[in-house]
Each structure stands twice: as C-alpha cells, then as structure tokens.
Amino acid sequence: MTASLADYRRFYAEEIAAVTGIRSQALIEAFAQVPRENFLGPGPWQVGGLDMMAAQVKYCQTEDADPRRIYHNLVVVIDRERNLNNGHPGTLAAWIDRLELAPGEHVVHFGAGLGYYTAIIAEMVGPAGRVTGIEVDPELARRAQENLAPWPNADLLAGDAGTFDPGPVDAIFVNAGVTHPLALWLDRLKDRGRLLVPLTFDVGGGIGKGVVMLVKREDDRYSARLVSLVMIYSSTSVREAEMNAALAKQIASPKVFSVQSLRRDAHNAEEMCWLHAEGFCFSQRDSDRELLPVPSDHI
C-alpha cells in the first residue's frame, strides 16, 4: 500500500518530535497538518542540513518535484543567491515549543519569511487566537500573504521588527538574530508573556552566531533562560555595533549558562551580569527573589 502525502506529513511531524523531544501535542499536530510544499516555490528543491561548525548549510537537489521529498528535517532553499532557506524544522519546532503557546493567544512572529512557521503558530493558537507575522522583505511578505490565505487568524504585514508596535501580546517569536531585546517588546508582553529571541554577533554574509534566550514576564519582573546556541540570519535593523562587539566577547562566558533574569532596573555592571547595557541586563540574579522594577520611562 502506497503511503499518501498526508502519511508522509504525519511521519515528518513524528520525526521532528522524536529528534527534538518537543512536548506540545498541538505543535506536533500543526506540523502534521500544514502543507509545507505550499510555502515553497515549485520543485525540484534544494534541501540541506545545518553545519554549525562551518557556519553554513550544505545543499543537494531533490530527485524530482514530488512533495514527499521535503517532508524531512531539512531546510529548503528559498533564494540561493541570498542564502535564504525555509528554516530548519527541528530547530524552530524546539523554539516554538518553549513558548508554550495556548489556544486563544495573540502571538507576534518577527521574520516570518514565506509564512510556514506563522501557519504552524496559527494552527496552535486556533480560531480564537491570532498570529501577526512581520516580514521586512516586501517580496517575501507578498508571497507569505498569499500562502497564509487559508488561515483567517493569521495576519502578515510587510514591516520592520525594530519599529512595529504589536500592542499587548502573549508571546513574541523573533526569528532573526538581533543584538539586544527592544524595550518595546518587553513592554508589550502581557503578564506571563514570553519572548524568544536570538542574540547574535555577525560572522559575515548576513549570518550571526550566538544564543537563543527565553524571557518570561511576571508582573514587572522578567526571568530569562538560555534555550540553545544558534546560527541564524541577522535582523536588518535591531543591531548595534557596540552590542555586537559585547556579544562577540561575552558569548564564550560560562555565565550565559546560569542566566536567571533580565533586569531593567538601573544598576552598574557587576559580577552577576552576563550581558549588561543601558536599559537591560541579562543577569545571574534570580528574578523571583529580587523585584526588578520597570523604569518609569518605559511604562
């Protein structure tokens, strides 16, 4: 008996779950339901695996245009000249899983690309929820808008993550490397809101290396934890030269593994600080034990 495309999609979802250990059944189901082929150009496709040590993706071409070829834990090329791909399913699944998304929530997805993972999030939050995707590249945004038409709870806007104000949100997923979390993002998180953000320094070719941090807001305190190492495309706007240099220096510090909080109170750099800057600090201090008030100019 020949397996159907739906069978392949289901196996793909289960493969991702097995490789990453993701906990959310809603996320696994979303990968089993969203047709990945609808978010790519026509096949055959160039697919590849991540090489973290070489800071590159190694590609090969599928035998034909059969959609079953892209239901594996591989990236798929969008634009080879710009080194753009559709994102590594296992990696993004693990990040989305850490956001603990629930039905009815409003999620913002910065760096939506062609909208595939925006659709995954839309499936997770359901018809009572909403996802707002933001993509800075006008052509990618146009294509993503078309791709997301079957999901009425998904909006896709062409815009800049550095200036877009999403209003109050339950979660923000930043799918591009930045040098710092914006005060606006932290301000807009609801109580118990979550921010997943890659902090990276440039390594050339529009690519950055660094770490992914998960920030959770509780009242006016922010816990923070290391999620993973990362190699990712750099944001076109949320980058500062001074912070890029600081990240390149601090990324090798073992302190990153014991970060407990994101502090927004005014304080001098101290031994407990991992990444200290004006307006924020990733610290080894425990946010549950020390009240970290939001500065009045951020309210």
Q: What is the secondary structure topology, with strand pairs?
A:
Layout: H1 5-20, H2 25-33, E1 46-51, E2 56-61, E3 75-79, E4 84-85, H3 89-98, E5 106-110, H4 116-125, E6 130-135, H5 138-147, E7 154-158, E8 169-174, H6 183-188, E9 189-204, E10 207-218, E11 221-233, H7 241-250, E12 261-263, E13 273-277, E14 280-283
Parallel strand pairs: 5-6, 5-8, 6-7, 8-9
Antiparallel strand pairs: 1-2, 1-3, 3-4, 9-10, 10-11, 12-14, 13-14
Helix pairs in contact: 1-2, 1-3, 2-4
Verbal overview:
The protein is α/β, with parallel strands linked by helices and 299 residues long. Helix content is 24%, strand content 31%. The protein has seven helices and 14 strands. A seven-stranded mixed beta sheet has the order 7-6-5-8-9-10-11.
How many helices?
7
Strand order of the largest sheet: 7-6-5-8-9-10-11
The total strand number stands at 14
Order of helices and strands: HHEEEEHEHEHEEHEEEHEEE
Structural class: alpha/beta
Name the average pLDDT: 92
Question: Biggest sheet, open or closed, and with what strands and sense?
Answer: 7 strands, mixed
- Give the low-confidence spans: 290-299
Using only CA atoms, what is the Rg?
Answer: 19 Å
Query: Which percent range describes the beta-strand content?
Result: 25-35%
Shape: globular
